[in-house]
Amino acid sequence: MYGVILAGGSGTRFWPVSREQSPKQLQKLIGTGTMIQNTVQRLLPLISIENLYVGTHQHQAIETLRQLDSFGFSPDQLLAEPCSKNTALAIGLMAKVLAEKNADAIMAVFPADHVVSKPENFIKVLQKAETLAQKGFMVTLGIPPNRPETGFGYLKQGLELEDFEGIYRADRFEEKPDISKAEKFLEQGTYFWNCGIFAWKATTILKELQQYAPDIHSQLETLRGCIQNSSGKLNHLELNAKGCELFSSLPSISIDYAVMEKSSNVVMIPADIGWNDVGAWNALDEVCEKDSKGNVLTGNILAQDCSNSIVKGQNRLIATLGLKDTVVVDTPDALLVCAKERSQDVKNLVESLNEKGHQEGKRPATVKKPWGSYTVLDLGPNYLLKRIEVLPGESLSLQSHQHRSEHWTVATGTAKVELKDETHQLKTNDSIVIPLNAKHRLGNPEKELLVIYEIQFGEIIDENDISRYDDRYGRC
User: Fold this and answer.
1) Residue 358 lies in a domain
2) Is the pTM of this model over 0.85?
3) What is the pLDDT of residue 221?
4) Which CATH number is 75's domain given?
């Protein structure tokens, strides 16, 4: 069986920790790893790392590969998409890739950012799903509901499948209900949450797409021919210019709308796997440890007379007094305070931030780059102060700036600086000035992290003020 992990979401309901440029699946919210690392870890007992594929947005590809490197994940099993087009197109293109690789490929599809607290049950359910998929069925997992939830879609249990005890036809799909309808679903006992985990033959889902979503299916062969290896280090799969244009022009629709709700070939396995989609901050109530007053506290927290609240911070002390049913999330550049019952509305808050032009809506204080990261510490009308971390053996592009000069000071590690036609080795406390329009490159030749502090000076301070001449990541 092959596993396909869909990792292209933005996770805006987990702002300010999750942002468009550093989304939920790449964050450490629950457990020992990030959400995508935890997803890979629980699949490995059944699906080898050689049979795992990942689809994600092109802006998240390098960081995703870095996070999966410790598993031995191969970069050429990650497909970077030029834009988000929901799940039908992503699944269809992955199915095309797998069907060409193996005509009998069983393809299981998983979100990258969910929690499964009963991993042994999970593996057993997937083994059942594999057997059903081999017989030509499209399999979906149904989660037994424990409350009248309005944030999930539902599946209605149909007739039991002949010769397969405990497996049912999916009678119909129901969209997210209002509270009254959700209460009725819970009372009836034949409705299950739709968790977005599927299994089928790659050829089966392609046939279903051909029947129910021909506008997508008809372009998959062309898109497959447009897949190429990216240039530079960590050369993952991407679409060429023609493929990007075509991909961007196709409908944005979920696999549920496109196929599952229309097909008569869908079966459901009731799955008691401890599933949670961790869709908003209030979901931490169900998956995290609480103190004696029902609080979920993470970070440097002093909470007095607080109850049923979620407080998450980093290094800075957060002192809370008398909070009840409240969410507080602190990051270096943004603070969220909201009523717990309004957690789902954080997405709307982020949309408002973006409409008003607040960079904090999309970009985190620490921005991950192929070579490491940078953090903006201070800025003014004609200057900007950054902390730059360069990973061992990595280097930035050979570049210049038209509107700013830079002053670098090494805090820890050793810096290799190419400036004009000279190369400089800088140690701790050494500094160098990068003049306006001068070609330069910063690298870390050692095995320990390089940390430098950079002050930019100029009439225009803009992150896009970069002319690249050479880059190991193919960004020229």
Assistant:
1) no
2) yes
3) 97
4) 3.90.550.10
How far apart are the C-alpha atoms of 130 and 2, rounded to whole Å?
10
CATH of the domain at 442: 2.60.120.10
Q: Quick check: helix, strand or coil at residue 135? A: coil
Q: Buried b / exposed e across 104-119, counting CB within 10 Å, b at 16+?
A: ebbbbbbbbbbbbeee
Amino acid 114: pLDDT:
95
Give pLDDT, residue 359: 87
Q: Kindly list the distances between the CA atom of residue 137 and the CA atoms of 154, 212, 259, 403, 444, in Å, as whole numbers in the listed order.
A: 19, 16, 13, 60, 52
Say whether both 161 and 296 belong to one domain: no
The verdict on 215 and 291 lying in the same domain is no
184 and 101 within one domain: yes
- Same domain membership, residue 346 and residue 407: no
Residue 475 in any domain: the answer is: no
Q: Where are the beta strands (DSSP E) in 251-332?
A: 266-270, 275-276, 296-298, 301-304, 310-312, 318-321, 326-330
**410 contact partners, CB below 8 Å, separation of at least 6:** 426, 427, 428, 429, 430, 431, 450, 451, 452
User: Which residues, including other chains, have CB under 8 Å from residue 252's CB and lie 6 or more apart?
Assistant: 84, 85, 86, 89
Enumerate the β-bridge partners of residue 52: 3
Residues 267 and 288 in one domain: no
pLDDT digits (tens, 9 = 90+) for 270-304: 999 999 999 899 999 999 999 999 999 999 999 99
Predicted local distance difference test score (pLDDT) of residue 31:
82
Same domain assignment for residues 44 and 90:
yes
On whether both 242 and 301 belong to a single domain, the answer is no
Q: State the DSSP H helix or E strand holding residue 67, giving kind and residue range, or none if neither.
A: helix 61-68
In a domain, 361, yes or no: no
**441 close to 396: Cβ distance less than 8 angstroms:** yes
Low-confidence ranges of the chain (pLDDT < 70): none
Last residue in a domain, options 321, 350, 379: 350
Whole-number pLDDT of residue 475? 77
With contact defined as beta carbons under 8 Å apart, do 361 and 354 qualify? yes
Considering its fold, how many domains does the chain have in total? 3
Cβ(136)–Cβ(203) under 8 Å?
no
- CA gap 337, 347 in Å, rounded: 14
Confidence at residue 108, expressed as pLDDT on a 0 to 100 scale: 98
Domain end (from 350, 374, 392): 350
Which pLDDT does position 171 carry in this prediction?
Answer: 92
Residue 321 forms beta bridges with which residues?
304
Residue 184, C-beta contacts closer than 8 angstroms, at least 6 positions apart: none
Residue 457: domain span: 366-470
pLDDT tens digit string along 115-140?
Answer: 999 999 999 999 999 999 999 999 99
pLDDT on residue 343: 94
The confidence score (pLDDT) of residue 458 equals 95
For residue 130, give the amino acid letter.
Answer: E
| 476 in any annotated domain | no
